[in-house]
């Protein structure tokens, strides 16, 4: 998802919109870093009935999967210095699609998409499309 801006209200709106599009109780928690753009975390948590955690500052190991994914994205040609304000939703969706079709050892060599689909039924899936 691409928020309208980088302010806390923009992140809150985008996150809430995204949570409304996925089946309830599919996610139990989400972990944010300590950026000020996540300062509306209580509203997000309450509206979507989800636990929100924060990684300690300076400890990327608390978000190991996120850090690993960032490294893979950089290998795909998305440098750390990239200005994401210049990126559109189609680009974000194509990168996410590519990543969601790669089998993972941690998922028993299934793709993230296959695992996700195993948790939703046809009715829920039709609402996502």
TrEMBL record:
Any one GO BP annotation for this protein: DNA integration
Residue stretches making up the Integrase catalytic domain: 1-120
UniProt GO molecular function: nucleic acid binding; transposase activity
Transmembrane segments: none
A cellular component term, taken from the record's GO annotations: cytosol
Matches recorded under PANTHER family: TRANSPOSASE, TRANSPOSASE INSI FOR INSERTION SEQUENCE ELEMENT IS30A-RELATED
The protein's name in its UniProt record: Integrase catalytic domain-containing protein
Species of origin: Enterococcus aquimarinus
